[in-house]
Design a protein that fits this description.
It is a single chain. The chain is an alpha+beta fold. It has helices spanning 13-24, 51-57, 61-66, 106-119, 169-173, 238-247, 250-255, 300-320, 326-354, 357-369, 371-381, 393-403, and strands at 3-9, 29-32, 46-47, 70-72, 74-79, 85-88, 101-103, 123-125, 129-136, 139-146, 152-162, 185-193, 201-206, 210-218, 221-229, 260-261, 266-269, 273-274, 283-285, 291-292. It contains twelve helices and 20 strands. Among the domains are: 2-69 and 105-178 and 273-342, FAD/NAD(P)-binding domain (3-Layer(bba) Sandwich), CATH 3.50.50.60; 185-268, 2-Layer Sandwich (D-Amino Acid Oxidase, Chain A, domain 2), CATH 3.30.9. The structure holds flavin-adenine dinucleotide. Flavin-adenine dinucleotide binds at residues 9-15, 32-35, 41-47, 129-130, 163-165, 169, 187, 225, 268, 270, 287-288, 295, 298-302, 304. Flavin-adenine dinucleotide binds next to helix 1, strand 3, strand 9 and helix 8.
């Protein structure tokens, strides 16, 4: 049976990044992916400013820049039909570049990552669906699955990295997903053509019955993702439901005026979930397989790349010490939790806010009144300010003072660009 040092299941951002970081450490890596690239994926396609550094380290930023991607300078938030508040990303002098987010179709980003893997000598096998792990006592020692011709395969390795995404192999096979509560969310997404958004922002519209994220992804192409409670969509004709819901909001109607759907609407279940610790040795999780936060704050790709970098560091140590036990590899879970827990908490807080119109209006109002507060939040959402700066009593106090300020929320709000925070 063929054997490798590291096997990675899934060639999304987490899998590709882990493979590239491991390759940079000189490891012999095999990536197994059930799809064929280029492949598409439902996503807001909006990549946190902090991801640039990681993409550069992975050697793909230059190829991305050569494709002349759209760069966004911040977020434009509207709460329940009120005009957008534009918030620019705050500067980050130590990075020596303007902080902007990439807005890039996943079809393109994921393909670039896979091409880069091959260029750097990583073996990638597409149309290879992994359906189980190989075990030696309580340690994972490889994988088995079926290739395009339905032929079985088995490969051995010292470590397996499961980067197979939100319905990942470990989550099913080892039942690692914690039970979920709530009605469940569904995301409906499509690109619109013939549209040019007026400004370079990711437009987040909080509205009933859900929220949308809209961003320019090409010259006249805009990606519009709608997230609603899953039961709402039951029995509906998806394309009609999506268009009616998107266009029932006046701001969106005017932003998308003259545009048309470029494709059928695609859907994906979009509920956030948490994952239990890995119970066996030889196995590490990366990306969405480690848990998923609602895409409202749009940082899944950054988290995938960064979790891959942390995973690669711990796996490298495991090789140096020839220790692939669950206990040794759990260092990675501690590092992840130290770095991401507050950000996850922020996401959960925002989730509670956006579905309560008065609170949501109040917070946007407070941000409008206090530009520093707004920019700090943008820096945290952009993943280059530590989450502690907003998940704190001080920030909460300032926000509450803004929420309780005398003027009624929304009474003096201005369209994006007139009194936006970034002006
Ligand atoms: C509605 C929505 C909007 C989002 N918007 C944004 C956004 O704007 N910005 C952002 O940063 N993030 C966003 N995200 C999150 C982002 O899409 C994910 O965090 C990111 O794709 C995770 O990458 P990954 O590599 O872990 O998983 P994936 O990208 O899902 O990749 C997993 C790969 O594994 C392969 N695979 C699965 N099972 C197997 C198997 N058994 N064998 C072999 N291969 C397998 C799949 O084919 C896939 O290629 C959004 C998510 C949703 C649901």
């Amino acid at each position: 049976m063929k054997s490798y040092e590291v096997i990675i299941v899934g060639a999304g951002p987490a899998g590709c990044a882990t493979a590239l970081f491991m390759r940079q450490q000189g490891r012999r890596v095999l990536v197994l992916e059930r799809a064929v690239f280029p492949r598409d994926k439902v996503c807001g396609e909006f990549i946190s400013p902090a991801a640039d550094d990681l993409l550069a380290q992975l050697g793909v930023l230059q190829a991305i820049e050569e494709s002349r991607p759209v760069r966004l300078k911040g977020v434009a938030v509207s709460s329940y039909g009120k005009p957008e508040l534009c918030i620019d990303y705050p500067p980050c002098p130590e990075r020596g570049r303007p902080m902007t987010s990439l807005s890039l179709p996943r079809y393109q980003l994921d393909h670039l990552l896979v091409r880069n893997l091959r260029k750097r000598g990583v073996e990638v096998r597409e149309r290879h669906a992994v359906d189980d792990f190989l075990f030696d006592d309580d340690r994972v020692t490889g994988v088995r699955g079926r290739d395009a011709g339905n032929r079985p395969f088995e490969f051995k390795s010292s470590v397996v990295v499961d980067a197979s995404g939100r319905n990942g192999l470990s989550l099913r096979r080892l039942r690692l997903k914690k039970p979920q509560t709530g009605p469940g969310k569904i995301a409906l997404a499509a690109h619109w053509e013939g549209v040019r958004l007026p400004r370079e922002y990711c437009y987040m519209h909080i509205s009933s019955p859900g929220y949308t994220g809209m961003a320019q992804v090409g010259r006249d192409s805009v990606n519009v993702v709608l997230v609603v409670d899953a039961p709402l969509v039951k029995g509906q004709e998806i394309d009609a439901f999506y268009q009616n819901t998107v266009l029932q909001n006046e701001l969106r109607r005017s932003l998308l005026a003259g545009g048309r759907l470029a494709e059928r609407v695609r859907t994906v279940e979009s509920l956030s979930y948490a994952v239990r610790p890995v119970p066996c040795g030889g196995l590490v999780l990366a990306g969405d397989t480690t848990g998923f936060i609602d895409p409202f704050t749009g940082e899944g790709i950054y988290l995938s790349l960064r979790s891959a970098q942390l995973a690669a560091g711990v796996i490298d140590r495991a090789f140096q010490e020839a220790n692939f036990s669950a206990h040794f590899l759990s260092r990675y879970e501690r590092l992840r939790s130290r770095e991401f827990d507050r950000k996850f908490m922020l996401s959960r807080i925002l989730q509670k806010l956006i579905y309560r119109p008065r609170l949501s209006d109040g917070v946007v109002w407070a941000l409008r009144r206090n530009p520093d507060l707004a920019r700090t939040l943008a820096g945290v959402i952009g993943d280059y300010y530590p989450a502690e700066r907003v998940v704190s009593w001080r920030f909460l106090g300032k926000t509450l003072r803004g929420v309780c300020s005398p003027k009624a929320p929304g009474s003096t709000t201005q369209p994006c660009g007139l009194h936006g925070v970034g002006e």
